[in-house]
Design a protein that fits this description.
The chain is mainly α and 114 residues long. The chain has 5 helices and 3 strands; from the N terminus they run E-H-H-E-E-H-H-H. The longest helix has 21 residues.
Length: 114
C-alpha cells in the first residue's frame, strides 16, 4: 500500500516531524520557515520547507558518522586508554603516588622542552 506524506504539516505535528519538542521548534525553526495560516487560528508549515531547514541545520551542525574499518577520529586522538578510565575518587594511596609522579614527570618534560 502506498503511503503519501502530507505536504502541509500542522503546528502541533511539526516539532515531532523534526524530532524535537515544541519549545526548540519555536526557538530554532519557526522564525526561519514560512507559516501557512488557514481558518481563524490554524497554522501549518510546508513539509519541504521543514526538510530544507533540517538539511541546512545538519550541514552546519552535524558531524561525520563512524568511518568504515577504523576508529572514530576523536578516539584516535585520545592518548589514554578508554578501558582504564574510572569514575570517582581514587582511595588507593599507591595510585595517588603514581599519579603524582606521572604529573611531575610530565611537567618537568614540558619545562625542559621549552
Amino acid at each position: 500500500m502506498l503511503m503519501i506524506q502530507p505536504r502541509i504539516i500542522r503546528l502541533k505535528d511539526a516539532p515531532g516531524y523534526l524530532g524535537m519538542d515544541k519549545n526548540k521548534f519555536n526557538e530554532l525553526v519557526r522564525p526561519f520557515v514560512r507559516e501557512i495560516r488557514y481558518g481563524l487560528q490554524s497554522v501549518a508549515f510546508d513539509r519541504l520547507d521543514l526538510d530544507a531547514w533540517i538539511d541546512d541545520y545538519i550541514s552546519r551542525n552535524g558531524r561525520p558518522g563512524k568511518q568504515k574499518g577504523g576508529k572514530p577520529p576523536w578516539r584516535e586522538r585520545s592518548q589514554g586508554s578508554l578501558s582504564a578510565a574510572r569514575y570517582g575518587t581514587s582511595r588507593n594511596a599507591s595510585e595517588e603516588e603514581e599519579f603524582g609522579k606521572a604529573v611531575e614527570q610530565a611537567i618537568s618534560r614540558k619545562q625542559n622542552n621549552t
